[in-house]
Amino acid sequence: MTEKLRPRFWERPLAQLTPPEWEALCDGCGKCCLNKIEFEDTGEVAFTRLACRLLDNETCRCAQYPIRHQFVPDCVRLTPGTIGACAYWMPATCAYRLRHEGKPLFDWHPLISGDPDSVHAAGQSVQGWTVPEFEVPEDDWEDYIIEDL
User: Known PANTHER family for this protein (predicted)?
Assistant: First the structure.
């Protein structure tokens, strides 16, 4: 049996969310699955067009989410306890980051719109424009940096 989600649960403090509510907070944009480059001298984080090998480019979801760590051991386990350490590299539009910062969700978020495809319709996902990470040598990743995300 699936646990019922509480009305407007996303407005609660993150630590009060149930595991299903936490998972439902994801907007399905796929941006967190883009490879990032963190510049040691500035601490700046740059997103690239290069996607994790498990990202489905059309659905913007992990193709192996429940067992992803078997394939990508360093995939981050985002939880209410780890969001504080991870927020700086999460996309500015990420629901987890927004709620961590005390900000509301965008109107295009599926929890607000009621439409799971609204994130794509609003142009807020990586749908259709990523390059699989294994197609590009790591030394060339800087050539795939995205200026605006």
Answer: UPF0260 PROTEIN YCGN (PTHR37421)
In this prediction, residues 67-84 reach a mean pLDDT of 94
| Boundaries of domain holding 88 | 9-144
Residue 75 lies in a domain: yes
What is 32-96 written as a DSSP string?
Answer: GGEEEEE-TTT--EEEEEEEPTTB-TTT-SBTTGGGHHHH-TT-----TTTHHHHGGGS-TT-HH
* CA separation for the pair 99, 102 (Å, rounded): 5
By CB atoms closer than 10 A (0-12, 13-18, 19+), residue 124 is: buried
pLDDT at 148: 74
What is the model's pLDDT at position 1? Answer: 47
Q: Which value, to the nearest 10 degrees, does the dihedral of the CA atoms of residues 40, 45, 48, 50 take?
A: 70
* Bridge partner residues of 51 (DSSP): 34, 132
Q: What's the predicted TM-score (pTM) here?
A: 0.91
Sequence-distant (≥ 6) Cβ neighbours of residue 7 within 8 angstroms: none
